[in-house]
Amino acid sequence: DASHHHESHMGSSAFESSNHNMSVKMRVDEISSGTVGINLQTTEFKFSSDAEHRDGIGRGHLYIDGESWGMLYSTETTISNLSSGARVFKVILNTVDSREYVHHSEPIADEVRVDVN
Q1: From CA 99, how far away is CA 86, in angstroms rounded?
Q2: How many CB atoms within 10 Å of residue 84?
Q3: Quick check: 50 pLDDT over 60?
Q4: C-beta atoms surrounding 100 within 10 Å
Q5: pLDDT at 35 over 70
Q6: Handedness of CA 45, 48, 54, 59 (dihedral sign)
Q7: Is the confidence at residue 108, as pLDDT, over 90?
Q8: In terms of Cα–Cα distance, which of 60, 28, 37 is closest to 47?
Q9: Is the dihedral of CA 88, 89, 93, 94 positive or negative?
């Protein structure tokens, strides 16, 4: 439904989902020194590597300390070789064509702060 699509003020593309309860919760657990496990719980969203856009389908865009880390294609991932210190992990749900899912213009995202040893 193209009527839901609009450009956000920041210039990046956004997609207003018709799934108004779409959400993501992120849990980050340290597995060993410099290695964390990330677990995502989503509502009204399914991970997919499909190329064709469908509302409620997509991937997560992971940021660590504000820097883009890459895309997540499933609910669980492990990241290693992290330097020690306080880290901020943020995930934003994206469509398969890399638009951010938004609700009332706010990205559907979660952020967790973790001390990495």
Answers
A1: 29
A2: 10
A3: yes
A4: 20
A5: yes
A6: positive
A7: yes
A8: 60
A9: positive
DSSP, res 70: E
The token pair at 101 is 């899912």
Tokens of 94: 């994206």
Tokens at 78, concatenated: 């492990």
Q: Which of the 8 DSSP states describes residue 92?
A: E
Contact by Cβ (8 Å): 108, 101: yes
Residue 6 CA to residue 45 CA, distance in Å, equals 20
77 Cβ partners below 8 Å, 6+ apart? 37, 38, 62
| Residues whose CB is less than 8 angstroms from the CB of residue 104 and which lie 6 or more positions away in sequence, other chains included | none
Q: Give the pLDDT of residue 49.
A: 84
Q: Are 38 and 89 in contact (CB under 8 A)?
A: yes
Report how far residue 10's alpha carbon sits from residue 77's, in angstroms, rounded to the nearest whole number: 29
Q: 75 and 41 in contact (C-beta within 8 Å)? A: yes
* Residue keyed to tokens 């450009």: 7
Using the predicted structure, report yes or no on whether residue 7 has a pLDDT greater than 80: no
pLDDT tens string 55-95: 999 999 999 999 999 999 999 999 999 999 999 999 999 99
